[in-house]
Here is the input.
Amino acid sequence: MIKTVAGTIDSSRHSDCIDKAWTDVEERFATMVRRIDDCVGDLIITFQDLEIDQNTMVVFTSDNGPHCESCLKAFDYASTSFESFGPFDGIKRDLWEGGIRMPTLVHFPAVVSPTTIDFRFVLIRNTNEKEKSCQSSHANLGC
Here is the structure.
């Protein structure tokens, strides 16, 4: 959106994100997602070129739920844009499933089949006493 802290708004749009009857903010959002997708693809191709892709795990995750705030103060953004909450109800900061689920993709060819889909809830809990003390102290960098 903004190339520098004091810069002007970047008006570029990805060619896949224009002429679709989307709002200005939706085009910008879709362009951002497309750029991230392209960069992750470039990273995976780099791993392939280095011949380390089969045993390198790439994890891509996002924060929970769609939002209703616009990146541009003068424009609105609907949380229903692109139906990013899927079949669930709720948006960011809601306790509904659509507001608390966190999407995660894993690329790890030697271990995970490309067609694997797993909707189970994953909960990682620290039970080690040292790990518990690390959770309560941000200053402890030895964790």
